[in-house]
């Protein structure tokens, strides 16, 4: 297998252009997918369960006459969990417990304060009523993803978490079902694709309408989420997964090579980049890549990903590495250096930062505790890991006392007249009291 | 002027259908706008300032040859502020100070915890580097909107807030510029439309690229924000503004009528609904509407809005009013009752809740403190008022100690093998140490 990977140096005269070309990623939207998804959503909105059954038969080869048969009963989830191999079950439990412990710290609380005149202001934080969790079927069916999406929702206090998962030809993934049971998912339906997203967004007789849809999916699912957004909340639309490793050259080169592989094995578009000031270490990592490649079961995917989108980049120093990292705003950032605390403050944007040589990304993917759903493609500049905050919402509370309204009413009226909104002004003036009114009717 | 407004009662047999029809709102997207905006964005991305100047000349009739002339210097902002009428300036200052005080309570702090084996986990909260604020020109130029968008960004710690505001035929709104100065906006450019959004999203030689774009705009601006999302963060795409008033019949009917007007005067699509169990009070409000209508400068807009989208609805009791409100998830919710604290707990979804007869929505629009940018069209089911949290982002921090990595590595490897991701597993196993490794190369 090829172990080709781009080598760059920030000292090259054309480095900026090379670096930009390496990072260039623009999501391609397929007009065929867009129109197919529009049709599917329209059908599910207008024909409900009937359309859902038809698409499930057509796309998943699951033919049931009654939509109720699409639901997996809770005891089947429990049975799946109970039947797991002991060691796998224990690992899943450890992961769930750690993810829950971390996310419990994210719960936002309501607050309120009272001013001298009795006016009270506050922010009330409440969970969403109902969340939908999309879980892909087939190859990319990841139990860890069920935990990472469902646990924050339950920690937030969401009453009902509805999971949808396609079961092509009726094949169910018992580990996914076990994870659903462990995470506290309330109901599971064996539907997928754009039709499942439409059902969650608008509701059918069988599938309840949710307030937000989260979870990964293929191009049809992503397009469907984009289209139903507004009727329902959605999480981010993820791009290909990426890792950026900043290494001081002191970590075992095999470890770094394997960390690059672990990202590359996701798919051909995944991106793995290493920044290091030590050219000799980059050579070692390249040698490790060459030596380890053929031991990897997913070598074909890894080789393609490294060849097309990977890079080993020699930088001037770790300061420059941090500056380049801030330009990338990576999804996963390994700070594989001896003294990560000395450098972490220079990193302004990243989904998750893995500090020190022992913190491989894979620990975070499964069980460290923080979420593995992270902002991709530079969106860490403005967005955050999936968290409890994605399943809570805020309402402002305003209680103007009689005295408070006199003061606020005059200010509001002045500004409203300034903006040419006289009904706003008069509504405020009523609260000031007749003698304060500027305009009497 | 007509003072027609729909009367409904929850006791009617067809109430559910009537209620649903009243609320039905689906954003219409215009293919002409979509393609025009796509062209504008493409031009600004590829030709930068040149395209920006050309569009500004064509759409705003502002013809400058040097893009630098599009910037309004900071001292002009200060002069605008200093030249305000004393009373208006004082009102603007009070509003800014109150908005700032409220939003300071929204600042999220970083946190971290250490486990027994030395593993550290945390969440780092940092501000966005740079935010863009779109301010409409012409009629809808609202200084209050400048405060509501810019203050949270500055409270969050955003280093640079870039404001864009079109100045059709070169006319600048001094109150808007004064508000920008007061809110601490860093730079102001006189550009607007899709071209301004594109410039903020991708940067030009003159206008710096931002990380997130907030602020209201017309259909072109909304479509442009939708298209650049991903390259940059955006706030919500707002639908028409709405108010729902729940009244026990004890508030002055004129006050309630004027509160309905204050929403209706925004535009013909704005929605004003009153829920009250007291039919006689609904009659009084209807009489107030009739009497007050002709005194309103914006009576034409108000009458159209009330006729097409307004309603006075008799409910069985306040419990039913709360249940209906939860179905609507209103942007603005006035709980105009004698004892609002007894009822507020039953209201699950709303952008802002105005409690008691003195808390008119208009107080919140200008100066109570909470933000006036609120989720519309039922999106309060899953989203929140604009806030400091929209200008902060989180990064997860994971520092696995050597001992911690042994435990986590075994769990991660087990789960990774279960998901068919062997490079993930081996990357974790490296951190466990050779003797623990399941698969030796």
From TrEMBL, chains A, B:
**Alphabetized UniProt keyword annotations:** Amino-acid biosynthesis, Histidine biosynthesis, Metal-binding, NAD, Oxidoreductase, Zinc
- Keyword Ligase among UniProt keywords: no
Provide the binding site for Zn(2+).
263, 266, 365, 424
- Quote the cofactor binding remark: Binds 1 zinc ion per subunit.
Query: Could you say which residues bind NAD(+) here?
Result: 134, 195, 218
Residues binding substrate: 241, 263, 266, 332, 365, 419, 424
Q: State whether keyword Amino-acid biosynthesis applies.
A: yes
| Reactions catalysed | L-histidinol + 2 NAD(+) + H2O = L-histidine + 2 NADH + 3 H(+)
- Which cofactors go with this protein? Zn(2+)
The protein's annotated pathway: Amino-acid biosynthesis; L-histidine biosynthesis; L-histidine from 5-phospho-alpha-D-ribose 1-diphosphate: step 9/9
**Record-listed E.C. numbers:** 1.1.1.23
Summary of the function given for this chain in its UniProt record? Catalyzes the sequential NAD-dependent oxidations of L-histidinol to L-histidinaldehyde and then to L-histidine.
The entry sums up its family as follows: Belongs to the histidinol dehydrogenase family.
Q: Mind telling me what this protein is named?
A: Histidinol dehydrogenase
